[in-house]
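Interim report, section 4.2 (structural modelling).
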Amino acid sequence: MTDSKRSGSGEVAARRGKRERLTAAAVRMLHEQGVEKTTLADIARAADVPVGNVYYYFKTKDELVEAAIGAHAQSLEAMIASLDQLPAPQDRLKALISGWVEQRELAAQFGCPFGTLSSELDKRADGLDRTAAEVMRILLDWGERQFREMGRTDARDIAVALIASYQGISLLTNTFRDPELMAREGERLERWIDSLATEG
Amino acid sequence: MTDSKRSGSGEVAARRGKRERLTAAAVRMLHEQGVEKTTLADIARAADVPVGNVYYYFKTKDELVEAAIGAHAQSLEAMIASLDQLPAPQDRLKALISGWVEQRELAAQFGCPFGTLSSELDKRADGLDRTAAEVMRILLDWGERQFREMGRTDARDIAVALIASYQGISLLTNTFRDPELMAREGERLERWIDSLATEG
DNA sequence: GTCTATATTTTGATAGAC
DNA sequence: GTCTATCAAAATATAGAC
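Predicted structure of the assembly:
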C-alpha cells in the first residue's frame, strides 16, 4: 500500500479541508462583493484553490451560495447557544446587541453579512431566497421567545422591530461608512430593552 | 426645410422622451432585479428602445445607474415638498410612515426601492455609492428637522432610528414576502411618534 | 437620431491530462 | 483528487449603415 498516505483518511481530510475553505471564502466574498459581483474565480482565489477544481466540490455557483447560507445558519445557532447561557432574557437580548455593536466596523464596510445576502437573494427567482428566510426566522423566533419570557404579549412584533432596527442601522452604517451610527443605535436599543421590562 | 418635422424641437422631444423612458425603466429594473443582475438589454426592452441605441443616451451602464439615483432624488424631493404642506411635524412624520405602509406590497416583492439600490452600490468601488449616500442624507436631514421642531434634543439619533426601522422592516417584509410586517411596524412607529411628543 | 451587426470581455462550466 | 486549457454563453460596448 504505497498509496496509503494519499488515499484513505488523508483524502477525506483534504476534501473536507478544501470544501470548508471554499465555503468560508464564499461567505467572505459574498459579504464583501455581493452575490452577483463575486465570480467563482474570486472565491477560488480567496480559498487558494485552482478555479477548475471548484467544480469537484460544488457543481454550480448556486451550490456555493447555498453552502454560504448554511455556514451563516451554523454561526447563528452557535451564537444563540452562547446567548442562552445567560439567565435573564433582558441580558441575552442586550448581549445580542453588544455583539452587533462590536461588529460595527465590518458593518460600515460591507453591511450585515446575512442581511445583505438575503436582500440580494430576494431579487432572484430560485429558491435560495426561501432558504435565507428560514435562517432569518431562526433569529426572529429566538427574539420572540426572549420577549415572551419577559412577559410581553406583543413579543413577536417587538422581536420583528428589534431585528429590523439592526438590519436598518446596518444599512445606514454601511451607506454612510460610519460605525458610530451602529454604536449610538445600540445604546438606544439597550435603553429600549430596559424600558420594556418595566413598562406593561 | 423638408426635414422640419424630424429636426428642431421634434428631435429634442424625442431625445428627452427616450432618455426619460430609459431612466424610468432603469429605476424599475434596478429595483426588481438589482444592479448586477440587470442588463442593458433588460432596461432597453423595458423602455422599448433598441439595445444599441441606449449608448446614444448613456455612454456606460454606470451612467444609467447614476440617472436612476438622480430620479430617486427627485422623487424624494417631491415627497418632502408634499409632506411639508402639513403644519405639524408629528403629522408630517406620520404621513411619511403612511406612505411607506401604502407601498408595502412593492416592498414585499422587491424591498425598499432606494435602500436595496444603496446596499448594492456599497459593494462597489466606484463613487456611485457616495451619490446614493447623499440622497439618503436628504431624508435623514429632513427627519432630523421634524424631530427638532418637536423639541427633541436627540433629533438626529431618533431620525436615524426611524429611517433604520423603515429600511430594516423593508428588508424583513421582503425576506418573508409578508406586507403585513410593514403594516404592523408602521402602526408601532406611529404610536412611537405620538409618545415622543408627550415625553421629554 | 436610429438601429443592426458585431467586436471584446467576462464568466460559468466542462474536458481531459496527470 | 488535482489542475490546465478551453468551451459556450452572456454582457458591455462599438462601428457604421441608414
